[in-house]
Specification:
Helix content: 40-55%
Radius of gyration: 58 Å
Oligomer: single chain
Largest sheet: 6 strands, mixed
Low-confidence stretches: 1-42, 247-263, 595-615
Order of helices and strands: HEEEEEHEEEHHHHHEEHHHHHHHEHHEE
Structural class: alpha+beta
Strand content: 5-15%
Strand order of the largest sheet: 2-6-7-5-4-3
Amino acid sequence: MASESDHATPEFEQNEKESTASVSGAPPSSKEDETLVDELRPCKNMVFIDDWSQTGRGSHVEFTDEEEVPLQQGTFLGRGAAGDVHEVCVQKHKLAHKRMVVKRKIGGKEMKEIEILKRLSSHEHMIQLVGTYNHRQFLGLLVYPVAICDMATFFEDVEAWHNTASVANTVDDRQSLLETNQNNRLVALGYDFPSVDKSYKASLIYSKIGCLISATAYLHDQKIRHKDLKPSNVLLAKDQMWLSDFGSATDFSLLSQSATDNERGTPRYFSPEVAAWQPNGRASDIFSLGCVLLEILILHEQGTLQFMRENRSADPSFHANIKNVAKWLDGPGSQRWSFRRIGVVDQIRAMLYHNPTKRPTARKLMVRFTGYDLSHTIDSKYSIFGECCRSSFVSSREHNNEISTYRSRILDLQSELANRTEETNQIKRDYEKLFAQAFIDNQKTIKIREAQHQTELSYTRDREEWEQEKRDLKNRVAELEGERKKAQTQAFDRLEALLISQQEARIAKDKAKAQAAEDVRKRAAEARKKSDDDRIAQLEKLLINQKDEQLKRETALQAQKEEADEQAAKLAAEKKAAAKADGWGSDPPIYVPTTKRIKSEANDNTVVAAESDSEPIDEK
C-alpha cells in the first residue's frame, strides 16, 4: 500500500496532524467554538457478495488450470495496457470484470493490499472491490459499480456539446449533431444541455467538487496516497461519482506485463516535486486534485478547455504552467467574482503552490469549501457539495453532549449485549446436554431393535430354507471352482503356447544367423578367388609382355652384331688395301672387332648398347 511516511516533509506532516485533530472530535481550543462534523450516513450503492464464485472459497479464489472461471463476459467496457474490461452479472449485480496477465501469482503482500482496498470500499465515493481470483496467468478483479463513463470522457462530451452552438440554435438540433454515444452518455448522466447564454455549463460535476475532496481526505486519513489523481480515474453515473485506481492500483500493475503509467502517476498531473524525482507525500495528491478542480471550474464556466490548451507552454503539464492559472481563470465566459468563487479560486491556487509544505491538507480543504458552500443558498445543482458529503457546523457544547449521549447509549448496549451473550451461552449449553442425552437414547433404541429383529429371523426362517441356501452356496462354490480350474488350464495353455512360440522364434533366429554367416563366408571366398585369378592373369600378361620385349631386344642386338661384323670386314679390307698402298707389304695387320655386352641389374631385363673396338691380331 502506498504509504508516504518515508517521503513527506516534517512540516507537512505536522500540518496534517493539526488539521486532523481539528475535525475528529478533539477538545475544542479557546479560539474555536465550532467543530466540523461529518454526518455519518450508511454507504449507498454498495453490494454485499460474500461468495461471488459460488464455490465456498470466499472473495479471493485460486482457480486451478483445469477449472473454468464462472463468469459470463458481457458488454465490452474498455481496454487498457494491462487488460480488457467487460461487464459481468454476479448474483443479479452488474460488475466490471478486469482481467490482466501477471508475471507471478499474488502473494501475502498483495492479499493484504486487497483487504485494504475492500475496507476502503465503505466510503460513498470509492469503488468497491467485490472479489478477485487467480486463473493460470491471469489476475481478475471484480469491481462495483459499472459506471457510465469517466470524467475525462465527460469533459470531451461537454466540449462537443459546446461546439455545436456555432452550427445550430435549438437543443434538439444541437443534440442531433452529437455522436450517438456522446448524446446517450450525457442523457444517462442527467446532463441538462444548457443553452449558450446559460452561466453554468457543467453543474453535474461542479456539484461533485466536495465529493472529490471528501474521498481524497478519506484516503489520506487511512494513510494512503492516490498517486494518480486525474479525470480518467473519476467514474461517473447519474447523481454519483467514484474514485478509482486508488492506493495500491499501481502495485497491481507491477504484477502485469505492461502498464499505462508508471508508479509515479500521469506526467500531466505531476506535482513539481514528483516531476523532479524528489521525496513526496500526500501534498502531491493535493496538487493533482487542484489540477482536476481547476479543469472542472473552467469547464463549468466556459463550457470548454480550449482556451486553456491554447494558452500554455510547450510542456502541457500543470506544474510547468502555474503562471498561466490566473489567465486561464479569466478566459472567455468566466463568471463574476462571487464570494464562493473567490474562495474556490484561492484554494485552487493554494493547492497548486510549488512548495508542498504550503499546500492545504484535504481536511482543511473540507472545512474551507464547506464554509464557501454555506455562504450560498443550498442548491445541489449549483452547490459544491452534494447531499452525500455535505457537513454541518454545530457548537462544541452540542457536539460534546451528543458524544456523551452516544457513549451512555453504547455502554447500555454493551451491557445488554453481555447479558444476551450469557443467555445465549446458557441456552447453548442446555441444548448440548439435551442433544447428548437424545443421542445416547437413540443408540440404545437402535441396539434393542436390532436384537429383536435378529431373534425374529432366527425363529421364523425354517430349516428347508437354510438347507436350500446351503445347497445353493455349495453349488455356487463348485461353479466358481470349475471356473477357476478352467481359467487356470487356459492360462497354462496360453503359457505353453507362448513358450513354444518363443522356442521356435529362437530356432528361426539361430538358423537365420547361421545362414547369414554362411553367405558371408561364400561371398568372401568368391571374392578371394576372383581376386587371385585376376592377379594371376595380370602376372601372365606381364611375363608375356616382358618376353616379347626381350625377344625384340635380342633381335635388335643380333642385327647390330651382323652390321658391326660387316663394317669390320669392310674396314679390314680397306685397311689392307691401304697398307698395300703404303708399303706394308702383302700382309698388313689384321684388326678383329670385338663386342662387349653390358647388362643392367638382374631385375632390369634390358641390354645396354654394345661397345666395339678393333684389336690387331698377329697372324702368326
